[in-house]
Amino acid sequence: MDTPRIEDHALLSDQRTSALVTREGVIDWLCVPRFDSPAVFCSLLGEAENGHWSLAIEGGTVVSRRYLPGTMVLETVWRAGTGTATVTEFMPVTGPDDGARPEGGDQADLVRHVECTEGTVAVVQELKVRFEYGAVVPWMRQSPGPEGAPVLTAVAGSEALALHGPRLHPSDHAHVGRHHLTAGQEESWVLTWYPSWQAVPARLDPHTALGATVQAWTSWLGQVDVHDRYEEAVERSLLVLRALTHRLTGGIVAAATTSLPEDFGGERNWDYRYCWLRDAALSLEALLAHDHTEAAVQWRDWLLRAIAGDPEHLQIMYAVDGDRDLPERELEHLSGYEDSLPVRIGNGAVSQFQADVVGEVMIALAMMRERGVAEDSWSWPLQKALVRFTLARVDEPDQGIWEMRGDPAFFTHGRVMTWATFDRAVTAVERYGLPASDEELATWRDTRDRLREEILARGVDGDGAFTQTYGSTEVDASLLQIPHTGFLPADDPRMLATVERIEQDLLTAEGFLLRYRTRGQDGLEGDEHPFLVCCFWLVEQYVASGRRRDAEAMLERTLGCASDLQLMAEEYDPAAGRMAGNFPQAFSHLGLIRAVDALSGAFVTCDDSSRPV
Length: 613
Fold this sequence. Notes:
Layout: E1 9-13, E2 18-22, E3 26-31, E4 39-41, E5 52-57, E6 61-67, E7 74-79, E8 83-90, E9 108-128, H1 131-134, E10 139-144, E11 150-156, E12 159-164, E13 169-171, E14 174-182, E15 186-195, H2 206-221, H3 231-243, E16 275-276, H4 277-289, H5 293-307, E17 317-318, E18 329-330, E19 344-345, H6 356-370, H7 379-392, H8 412-432, H9 438-458, H10 482-485, H11 493-506, H12 532-544, H13 548-559, E20 571-573, E21 578-580, H14 586-600
């Protein structure tokens, strides 16, 4: 089985977990029941033997694929010499009262529905279940299900899968099937995860589940008010952010995958199936800008739970349920995507100190206040605890926004975000009347003002440009976020000088933006490709500094990197014309939304224009 390109995948999601399916109908990545659960199909990061579920039309080719409008329901049209068929695939987003499933429980479902629309077709399948990231071969058997029809079950330890639908047959440690359909006929297969100690779940009704799922997605999306030219891209990006949000806990994962390489064949492979406070906070701002206030409140509640009891030992990331223990380890039985090793699960950066994180969170929570979301009994005390955390480490070097694995340093972007922490705390008291003692307020003001003086003295090079770290001559695309904090306006001479240096040092020949120059501070071997969110940040900077034509050109160029389904990974290799890094990436999609909003004038930064420059 050839390795498909990253961008050839579609994302399916039930807002608790997700699957990837290739253009040719191979599900090569599925973690159940949560985003960060072990995969049961893992051939994406290994070989066919590591688990997959292929479904195709025999002798056919894919002539089109799309998401149903406003949803994450995938529709693929196949054409063979004898006929045509439409394959509809989705992970049901259902509730207790929609009638799709007759009983409750912890199940997660994946539906594959095939309808022959012309002539005759043969549906061919191969199912190879491998639990624990492709390492464990389950015990499989055919047995009567709750309705009496045969059900194929796979059991290994605490986990089980049940496949409802026309029978598949064992063949060489897999199960295969070949089913004929004529025009007007249809069949469905429903794969259900459930705890192995429970009874085999009843078959989900595919048609009822489809209706409920389409309704759930479209009603959440609502009306997107942006420039018509970019409406489809913004809609899809909002849906991706929703698809990466755990609907029960409110946690927003950074991506659906682990270990898709930033450097093909290299070691820059990380697990992104966790909730980074920074990524989630920036996603929150994009959602708020499009009136998804309920998502903001849900994430705030998730944050409260995640750091409750120990807010002064804040982590940069958590599991979707708020778990703090995310040890990094390598899966040596997997060969890696295009031989990119190691394959990692967990993330060692969880123990890093990244000074910008609290600032990102405070800016997002301040934006919630500006949008009229009232503080509850926990939320302001939480923010005060975050300020205390920052105050205790205010003079400590860190690893920076990009999780550098080299020596800690004073990253200028992180220092500005630290300034933003105290600035938003002061504004919350002075503008919104939130309680703080005179001593607290004076300390916050003094620290904010001291940081401002320090940044302008130590974070600016001799040519007037901000630098990546104090004492360095390097630049970093994260510096483009300085105006977003309100620290300086985008047309300040120091920002203009910074942009000029970024264009000189980090723009590739093809016109895309690297996040920084490698082989230095990050402490890793190899290189990486242009970072898509950084390209979108440059669009925002161009708009805010009056370079609209350059902004439009950069936006069009970056949007051109998206897949045919408008999905984006973390990076893009312009030389090879392909995506790199984990997929789809929340950071890239929230950057897209903000860039389009900047061009259309819809995005308003959480800013205090009265601050002195």
